[in-house]
Amino acid sequence: MAHRASNPDSPTHAVNLRVRGDVRALIDQAAKAQGKTRSDFMIDAARRAAEESLLDQALVRVDWETYQQFLQVLDQPATGEGYDRLMAARKPWQA
Fold it and tell me: Coiled-coil stretches, from where to where (predicted)?
């Protein structure tokens, strides 16, 4: 979902949150790094999380034949230059 610019004439509604001091300091630091107010930073982060959550709930309906083709593709072993490059890359957990 693309972020839509808010209409400055749209009414706003208060949302009150209680957070620990260390969390608030972290949010403030991140907001400052992005040149945003704490409220704007939190609203953007909450909106993104809400959109991702709803997108994760998406249901895709296909006919039986398409579903079988999809399963067939999933059952194929991964191959190709991109896959080989990914498997050869150093893993972050490897010393």
Answer: none
- Residue 64 CA, chain-centre distance (Å), reads 30
Q: Which residues contact 27 (CB under 8 A, 6 or more apart)?
A: 19, 38, 41, 42
Extract long-range pairs of 46-52: CB within 8 Å, 24+ residues apart.
47/3, 51/1
Instruction: Encode pLDDT of 17-43 as tens digits.
Output: 999 999 999 999 999 999 999 999 999
Residue type, 20: R
Provide the whole-model pTM. 0.55
